[in-house]
From TrEMBL:
A motif ('KMSKS' region) lies at residues 227-231. Homodimer. Keywords: Aminoacyl-tRNA synthetase, ATP-binding, Cytoplasm, Ligase, Nucleotide-binding, Protein biosynthesis, RNA-binding. Residues 331-413 form the Tyrosine--tRNA ligase SYY-like C-terminal domain. It is an enzyme of class 6 (ligase). GO terms for molecular function: tyrosine-tRNA ligase activity. This is Tyrosine--tRNA ligase. L-tyrosine binds at residues 34, 165, 169.
Length: 417
């Protein structure tokens, strides 16, 4: 299947400047294509995966993806999707973010047939006079004002700095066309104005018959109409220190039946037959959640690797069954990150006193004795029914944790000081 036809089947194409021309070009030669990411933070999140999945698909078909780290544009601020000015970062912050994001990119794309560049390398060399004479003269202010990204900000106001962002992004496209053989820019639906401005610039500089293309991705919405990628706890990060692989896996496995097939098409490399088979299972046996499990496995493997999938599944199974005793200390750190926790000393103590005085898991000694006698308390996966039993916080999990389960589902984590 031609890459453009595959992207359309997967629901990944919003707008293109010349779909037939792009399809023909992709058939006859390797395409250089790019998308940019400004280093506004030191980790990417799953929203960034939306364009990156596109680049990865092109890479798998032999094309050459280029990522532009916006060391230059990131110091200015993209007005796209914002209703107010961005807070400018220090150059030290930008540099730290660039390094962290570059490492994440290499993890996703490898080093073969893939390039990372930084637009600071060429934008920083432009003098103000060069910018105005060589590029400013080629942009019509009326046209710039009509671009959605600017028009949406005119009522609340937009600084000259952010107004010029589309010129800088256009210079990026021209530079990459000249120096990296890039003919296609990919971005979100809100980037259409910026990307087409780049095509206009290339046509003015290189000639109107120059083969360059734009392709944007539909806005990713959940079935309930809300924006994909946001959770009650905030963004879902690609950095395992910010969002553990277990949390990442859980995000995908908890997707709505109405969304899961769309996400399988978009965020996995599974073929049409397998996705259609999983779509049938969503209709016939939704309670088994096979499509969600497959989605979680595939995306977690892509971002964090095979071992992360194994660990996430191990934690999931242990929490579901209550058999937590075989978890490693690292798996506990992942799986219990958002569960109620308390710090305790490493001293041995009677279970009743420990549950009431040290951890406050039980409200009173009477309640604690009742729960222990009734078999409602498990310590590190083991049921404890002796009110005279002793808790030894250093006995399990490298002496770092004690896991308490009260009833069938309530978990508590005691961190040993």
């Amino acid at each position: 299947m031609n890459i453009i036809d595959e992207l359309k089947w997967r629901g990944a194409v919003n707008q293109t400047t010349d779909e037939e021309g792009l399809r023909e070009l992709a058939e006859k030669q390797q395409i250089g294509l790019y998308c940019g990411v400004d280093p506004t933070g030191d980790s990417l999140h799953i929203g960034h995966l939306i364009p990156f999945m596109m680049l990865k698909r092109f890479q798998l078909q032999g094309h050459h993806p280029v990522i532009v780290i916006g060391g230059g544009t990131g110091a200015i601020g993209d007005p796209s999707g914002k209703n107010s000015e961005r807070v400018l970062q220090t150059m030290d912050q930008v540099k730290h973010n660039e390094d962290a994001i570059s490492a994440q990119m290499i993890k996703l794309f490898g080093t073969e047939n893939f390039t990372i560049v930084n637009n600071y390398d060429w934008l920083s060399k432009l003098s103000l006079l060069d910018f105005l004479r060589d590029y400013g003269k080629l942009f019509n202010v009326n046209t710039m004002l009509n671009k959605e990204v600017v028009a949406s900000r005119l009522e609340v106001g937009i600084s000259f700095t952010e107004f010029t962002y589309q010129i800088l992004q256009s210079i990026d496209f021209l530079h990459l066309y000249k120096h990296e053989n890039v003919q296609l820019q990919i971005g979100g639906a809100d980037q259409w104005g910026n990307i087409t401005a780049g095509i206009d610039l290339i046509h003015k500089v290189e000639g109107s018959d120059t083969d360059v293309f734009a392709l944007t991705i539909p806005l990713m919405l959940k079935a309930d109409g809300t924006k994909f990628g946001k959770t009650a706890g905030g963004a879902v990060w690609l950095d395992p220190k910010k969002t553990s692989p277990y949390e990442f896996y859980q995000f995908w496995i908890n997707q709505d039946d109405r969304d899961v097939v769309k996400y399988l098409k978009y965020f996995t490399f599974l073929g049409e037959d397998e996705i259609n088979e999983l779509a049938d299972k969503v209709q016939t046996h939704p309670e088994k959640r096979e499509a969600q499990r497959r989605l979680a496995e595939e995306v977690t493997k892509f971002v964090h690797g095979e071992q992360a999938v194994v660990e996430a599944q191990h934690i999931t199974q242990a929490l579901f069954s209550g058999e937590v005793q075989d978890l490693t200390a690292e798996e506990i750190e992942q799986g219990f990150k958002n569960m109620p926790s308390v710090e305790v000393s490493d001293e041995k103590k009677n279970i009743i006193l420990w549950l009431v005085d040290d951890t406050k898991i039980e409200a009173s000694r009477r309640q604690a004795r009742e729960d222990v006698k009734n078999g409602a308390i498990r310590i590190n996966g083991e049921k404890v029914q002796d009110v005279d039993a002793e808790i030894d916080p250093s006995a399990h999990f490298d002496g770092k944790f004690v896991i308490v389960r009260r009833g069938k589902k309530k978990y508590f984590l005691a961190r040993v000081k």
